[in-house]
Write a structure and sequence with these properties.
310 residues; alpha/beta; Rossmann fold; 2 domains; two-stranded antiparallel ribbon; 13 helices
Length: 310
């Protein structure tokens, strides 16, 4: 009953930059490299991870106002239109997203976002619902999602930083080995360290090693900040000053860094399809966009998975 929960924006951005435009073009010459790459990624994941359920999470709101209200710099450098708050997306990628969603509908693979939330929050809620009988595997290239690992619930993170073919399958031990903190402490660790890609400043002068040491020693930010008032706490004077100076930031940063786990998700049929839900639509799309090969590879992967015993 394993659910493969896909960070769709993460994968289609990677597909866009990973597959040359010249390698996948529609008959009219328009590039469809992101679509082909994404479909091939899903084919590979179905074959290698063998899920029984599949959901693609989308960004209904890529920069939620409730996060911006807490930290105004959150993703500010990625805003293409300051008035509309539109994300900066390559011109040749934007139209491919709608094509990709058309393909997913034809296959019968659910893809959705929830107003006011990012894809990460959808994935976080799906992971929070995992159980040992119905585990969840989250696939993304976003480091923020290391926090979703939970061995007790059998929630795994498939990190595709080096591509889908070279997945890092991460349990809590893997997160600990990689960053020096347990998955449960990753969000607090990230708040301390900061993340330039998300516009999170972190605490000036506190790098990854120091942040990991603090979370490893104190467990969480609340305990760490409380220790600043304890003269017996083993915190160097200079570091103590840096943390106190950043107290306003640290009071809100964990809320921004932690993915939501209580998003009101729609009810969908997430069973992995054995065959396309709308074969005629799929054939038409494959012909229109010159993607018969990628479509067939996913059709074959789904059929092969359906033929396997549970």
């Amino acid at each position: 009953m394993t659910l493969l929960a896909v960070d769709a924006p993460s994968l289609y951005f990677r597909a866009f930059f990973g597959v040359p435009e010249s390698a996948a073009k529609a008959p009219d010459g328009s590039p469809v490299n992101a679509v082909r790459g994404f479909l091939d990624m899903i084919s590979t994941l179905v074959k290698t991870r063998r899920p029984t359920r599949l959901i693609c999470a989308l960004d209904a709101d890529w920069r939620p106002q409730w996060r911006v209200d807490l930290i105004p710099s959150y993703k500010a450098h990625r805003v293409a239109d300051p008035v509309a708050g539109v994300e900066e997306i390559p011109d040749l990628l934007s139209p491919q997203v709608e094509i990709l969603l058309d393909f997913l509908r034809a296959f019968g693979i659910p893809a959705y976002g929830v107003p006011g939330y990012e894809a990460d929050d959808v994935l976080g809620t799906l992971a929070a619902r995992s159980t040992r009988a119905a585990p969840v595997e989250v696939i993304s290239g976003d480091r923020d999602l290391f926090q979703l690992v939970d061995d007790d619930r059998r929630s795994l993170f498939l990190y595709c930083g080096r591509g889908v073919a070279k997945l890092e399958v991460c349990d809590d031990a893997a997160v600990q080995a990689k960053y020096g903190v347990p998955a449960s402490g990753y969000a607090d660790f990230a708040a301390l360290r900061g993340d330039a890609s998300d516009g999170l400043p972190g605490v000036p002068g506190v790098g990854e090693k120091t942040a990991a040491g603090l979370i490893s020693r104190f467990g969480d930010l609340d305990t760490l900040m409380a220790a600043l008032d304890d003269p017996k706490a083993e915190i160097k004077p200079g570091l103590r000053t840096k943390l106190r100076d950043a107290s306003a930031y640290l009071a809100v940063a964990p809320t921004v860094c932690k993915v939501a786990t209580d998003v009101p998700l729609p009810e969908v049929d997430d069973a992995l399809p054995a065959a396309p839900a709308d074969p005629d639509a799929l054939i038409a799309l494959a012909e229109q966009w010159n993607l018969a090969g990628a479509a067939k590879r996913l059709v074959d992967a789904l059929a092969a998975r359906a033929a396997l015993p549970e």
